[in-house]
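Memo to structure team: turn this sequence into structure tokens by end of day. - J.P.
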Amino acid sequence: MEVMNAVFPQPGQLEEFFAHDDDGPFVMMNLVRFKERATYDDDPGVDISGREAYERYAAEMESLVGVRGGRIIYHGDVTGILLGSVEEMWDAVALVAYESPAAFLEQMGSPERLALERHRSAGLAGQLNIRLKTRPA
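Reply from structure team:
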């Protein structure tokens, strides 16, 4: 199994990700890796860790997710792996519940979120976003 972290989706990847008929609630699992030092293209003099830059983004995202009916279910540090192996471990994980793909896409394209993007891209070395769906009992 090859694992490839990324910071931005490839062209068409977002559309393909939401191309099926399921418009209901879902949970996004975010596995993130931080840069050792943040790299701000618009302000190279900023001297903070990648984690600190990403935390600036994450702190504001909680309210943006909530405005559209979502919520952060869990966030914390990755501390080990029991089964399997990866070349480089992720630093943190977050589980975020969304009301629908439309709510997710609206939040992602909002001017408020786009204004925060500089912190996210400055701090992230890469991530995996995995869509989760609860099965009916």
